[in-house]
Amino acid sequence: MVVASSLLYVSPSASPQAFYSERPVHLVKIDTSRHGSIGEEYGVRAFPTMKLFVDGAVFDFDSSQGRGWQQIVKWVNKHTERDHVLKNVQDLNHYLHDNDLNVIGLFPDGFNNSAFVTVSRHYDDVIFAEARGNVSAKEIAEDLGKHAALVCETINIGRSTQSSKQVELPRDGMHCFDEPRNPQRPEWTDRFKSTVEGKMLTVNRTDANEGWGQMIQMKCCDDESKAEKAHPMFPVPSVVMMMPHDERHAVYDGDVFDTHELDRWIQARRTPMVMRMDMDTAEKILAPGPENTPVLFMISRTADTVEESIVKEAAPQLRGRVHVCLSGTESQIEKRTADMAGVEADSGPVVTLVETHGGTGQTGQYRAARKYRIPSEGLTAAKVVEFITDYENGRLAPYLKSEPVPSAEDVRTGGPVGVLVGTTFTSASQDTTQDVLVDFYAPWCGHCRKFEPLYKQLAKKLKHVKTLRITKLDATRNEVEGMAIQGFPTIVLFPAGESPKHTVYYQGSRQPDDMNVWLHEHCTHKFQDTPPPKEAGAEGDPVESGLLDPDEEDL
């Protein structure tokens, strides 16, 4: 079986080249210091970085496990050999005990399972298995139906300093397995016995009269006799998904030969319809996948708001289209979520759609992930659904954090450097008739403060050039479409010409004369350094205060 995959090795000094071996995985390396757009698109922040591309899904290598070839091969195999074969009912019981999220293919003799095998390589947290053959698939389907009728829970037992520990179960009538369901380290030989009385589970260590240091979990299920009497019947062929949330099992009703449709169906069920934001949730909804499903966040400082109930009501209609996530503002991950969504700390409840990954537009240029804000006034479940439909049809404008547009009086008294904000940046920078120079700065940046009088000197010197606009933008208070600002100050020229314009980043000396020479080289329109005689007389004017507003001068 040949896998459509490649392994990307990113370093700061490698030349782009590919090595093709007889193995089904292509090895590629690339120098992102020379090809920065690739590093930006795939979030490369350190060197070396390894990523595995499998049928459109991207997986990051965790370097903490070591960078030896053995570790790398094991990691690659994990993602390219994901489909397990169930030979009998005992295999199924062991398989379901070990995993929470399962997708099982029930296929008769001669069935084409290629789409199932392809999709199995796209997920870190979903385990795939299949039963093959008329007899075997039918027997396993029967037993799988019994498992589907069971309501099982994963009970966190944790560590213990004693040889036994008691934990309360969610309800009466449950029984628990003896073997921990979460993977244990091979060198640990601990053995356990689970006993249930009423709602109380007692876990005893049986191989030693002492406690245990690992964080164990036990699988506990309701009465199996009920499942024996009444359980769903799964057809052959079919694809069944077992999950610990919502309806707990589902049968795929789409085209089993359509990889994309099967991917979307699994992606929609691998997480609950409504989630609470924490580290585990963040890993699931923000991790790269074949669909890169956007997230509808409801962010509020208080729980049980009207907006929360509205979003929950809309969630079933949004399944498979977006993830729905509720978030507060207290924990670190919640604060980072609010910042990512552009929500201020003192805001009321906000409902916002956030793309989890950037993409490539029609021009071929990479763009950062976008977010979209729905007005909270008069919010209903129907309006939430309509909002997502408008997003899918490209009818929404991205939400950008922005300061107020400067007033006419601010512009008149603001000096030679124009002020841009989030809502005016695109129209100004993409003006096809003008060369536009933008300084992206931060009020707290020492380098920005040092540069401010020099930048103003340049703007004053060239204020007679009508084809050149010299501007500034506070990148901490404004967001701009299509720009990823990594440091301050960042100085970018948008030369006149057809939109979308190409960008030229300034990397040289920040002295006005040196920048002037650079502008002559890169501006579309040619200009003179000195104004016409009728505009002369500006020489000797004092250099005004700088890029920062007066109330920021002493920060």
UniProtKB/TrEMBL annotation:
Top-level taxonomic group: Eukaryota
GO CC entries: endoplasmic reticulum
GO molecular function, one term: protein disulfide isomerase activity
Protein name listed in UniProt: Thioredoxin domain-containing protein
CDD domains attached to this UniProt entry: PDI_a_family, PDI_a_PDI_a'_C
Domain Thioredoxin, chain residue ranges per copy: 397-524
Any one GO biological process: protein folding
Region (Disordered): 526-555
Family, as annotated: Belongs to the protein disulfide isomerase family.
